[in-house]
Amino acid sequence: MTEQNVSIRFQKAIDEKNSVVMLDFGNQSYLVLMGNGNILLDKFTDNKPASQKEFDEILQSRHEDLEKFLGKSQTSQKQEPLQAYKERAANIAYEMQ
Q: Do 50 and 63 meet the contact criterion of CB atoms below 8 Å apart?
């Protein structure tokens, strides 16, 4: 049995309460919005960002999505972002089968 650890590849603060983090686990990398609520934004297998510049480019390309998530978490109850996370996580679990 091999031991698999979670490691942080990149991290960037978005505001005083939220950060976007690229986590590595096994052969996958996960882009996660962490803070008031934890939301899985994307996953990467072969096209993982290798530099801070590539990570920043990914964040730039997802700027609107991040703004939407942050806006919802500040103006609505926590159930909505949690539901989005659950749906996204269920989709990933289904794809891995």
A: no
For Cα atoms 31, 80, 18, give the angle at the middle one, nearest 5 degrees.
45
6-42 core/surface letters (b: 16 or more CB in 10 A; e: else): eeebbeeebeeebebbbbbeeeebbbbbebebebbbe
Q: Which of 25, 1, 37, 35 is nearest to 92 (CA)?
A: 25
For 88, list phi and psi in degrees, rounded to 5: -65, -45
* DSSP 8-state assignment for residue 50: -
Q: Give the model confidence (pLDDT) of 15-48 as tens digits.
A: 888 899 999 998 899 999 888 778 888 899 888 8
Please give the order of strands across the beta sheet that includes 28-34. 6-13, 19-25, 28-34, 39-44
Residues belonging to the chain:
97
